[in-house]
C-alpha cells in the first residue's frame, strides 16, 4: 500500500487556490492514501470566531465535494483538515474522502491555545476507518500529546495513525514517534509550511513505521513523499520472542488509577 | 535541589568492587539525589535463574546496608538497582536509600527478553517517595514503554521520574523524554556503560526537565552529572494561558475504552 503526505503552503482565506493546488499535487503523485495538513483549504491563523465561521463549511459543503472529486478522479483516499460548521458549532475536523464520498471524520479532541476560544471541543470519539485492507486512526495536531487517545486507537487494532497538523511548537514529531513505538503502529504526521499572519510553520512531515523508524521526512518547503508499506505488519505486537507490546501491559498494577 | 546520575561499568559478580566504586563516586560528587543503573552492584547478563539467585539479596542484606552507609556518610539519597530476593521470588528492584535506611523500592513491572524466564514479575504498584520536598517516582528500564505506568505517577503528583536502566536497545531515552513532556515531569534516566558477556551498553544517561529539555547527557564512558533544579515547578501543568496538560485530557472521549 502506498501512503504519503502532501506538505504545502495554504493561502489564507483562498479556498479556490488551495483546492486547485491540492488537485494538482494529488494528480502529479500516486498513492493509495494522502494525508494533508490541518485546515489546509482555508489557512489556520484566524483572528476571531466570527472570521473562523466565515470560512467554515459543513461536511456536505462545496469544499468536501471538491475533495471527493479529486479522490474519485485519482482513485485514492485523502485525509485533510477543515473548519467544520455543524449547527452553531465549529470544529477543527479531519475529513476522509474516497471515490465514494466521505468515509470518516474526526473533530480535534484537544484544542490548543486560542483554538479554545474560537473552536468547539471535538465530540467524536477516537475515530477509525478501513481503506484497502488497512485500519486507519485519525488525530488532529495537539491530540499528539495524550497517550490515552492513541492507545485507544492502538488497542482497537489501528495499523496507521494519521495526524493532520499545523505545529507551532517542536514537540509533535517526537511525540508521534513515541505513539508509533509504544503502540507498534505506523504513523503519518503532516505539518504545513509557510508563514501566515506572522506565524512560521516548519514542515518536517514524517512517515514512521511500527518500530519508530522514519521512512520519509519533509523539509521546510512544499513537498510530497510517498512510501510503500504493508501496514498490516502492525497487527503483530511481538517485539521479540518474549515481549508483546499489548500483552505486556500490567493492567493489574495501574488500571484502577488511570 | 541537586539531582544527578552515576553512569559506570559494574563488574559482573563482583559486588565488593562495585560497591567500592559507588562509594568513591558518591563521595567525589555532591548531590541531594543520585540515580544509578539497574542491577549495578551485581552486573546484569545472568545466564540462568540459578546464577541470578546466587547474586540476589533481600532488602535487609549486606548490599543495601552498604549503600545506606554511603548515603549516611554523604548525607544524600541513592536510587540503585539490585536483584531482590524475596522468599522464593527474585525481582529486578530499584531501591531507595537515605541516611535513615530504605525509604522505597519498586520491583520492575515490565520484564524484557529473558528476564521473563529468570525474574519474577514485579508486584509493587507504581511507587512514589518524598525526599527534601520533592515527590519522586520510580521505574526500571523497559517500564519506559508503557505510558499508563508513568501517567499514574504523574497524576499522583510526582515531580521527578527516575528510571534505573540497562538499555540493550535505543528506545529508552526517546520514550522517557516523551514521558517527561506528556506529564510535565522531570526525569532522570540512567544507563550503564561497558561490555558484559558480549552485550554492549552505550550509556547516554539523561536528565530532562518538565518540558522535555535535556539538562545533562552522559557520553559512552563512566561519568557523573549533577544539575540544580527546582523540581516543584513540575506541579504547574499549565503550558500556556490556555492549556493544562492534565485538565485538557478528554476522559469523556476515551476513558471507557482504556
Largest interface: A-B, 45 and 45 residues
Number of domains of chain A: 1
CATH superfamily of chain A: Carbon-nitrogen hydrolase
> In terms of structural class, how would the helical and strand content of chain A be classed?
alpha/beta
User: How does CATH name the architecture of chain A?
Assistant: 4-Layer Sandwich
- Strand content bin of chain A: 25-35%
**Total of helices of chain A:** 7
Order of helices and strands of chain A: EHEHHEEEHEEHEHEEEEEEH
In angstroms, what is the radius of gyration of chain A? 17 Å
CATH class of chain A: Alpha Beta
Q: Give the integer mean of the pLDDT values of chain A.
A: 97
Number of beta strands of chain A: 14
Would you mind describing this structure in some detail?
The structure is a homodimer of 258-residue chains. Chain A is α/β, with parallel strands linked by helices and 258 residues long. Chain A has a single domain, classed as Nitrilase/N-carbamoyl-D-aminoacid amidohydrolase, CATH 3.60.110. Helices cover 24% and strands 31% of the residues of chain A. The first copy, chain A, has seven helices and 14 strands. The first copy, chain A, has helices at residues 15-27, 49-55, 62-74, 115-118, 147-155, 172-183, 251-254, and strands at 2-7, 33-35, 77-86, 89-98, 101-107, 127-131, 134-140, 160-165, 186-191, 193-196, 199-202, 206-208, 214-217, 223-228. In chain A, strand 10 and strand 11 (199-202) form a beta hairpin. In chain A, helix 1 runs parallel beside helix 3 (62-74). The first copy, chain A, is globular, with a radius of gyration of 17 Å. Chain A binds chain B through residues 109-117, 121-122, 124-126, 142, 145-149, 151-152, 155-156, 171, 174-175, 177-178, 181-182, 212, 240-243, 245, 248-250, 253-255, 257-258, and chain B through 109-117, 121-122, 124-126, 142, 145-149, 151-152, 155-156, 171, 174-175, 177-178, 181-182, 212, 240-243, 245, 248-250, 253-255, 257-258.
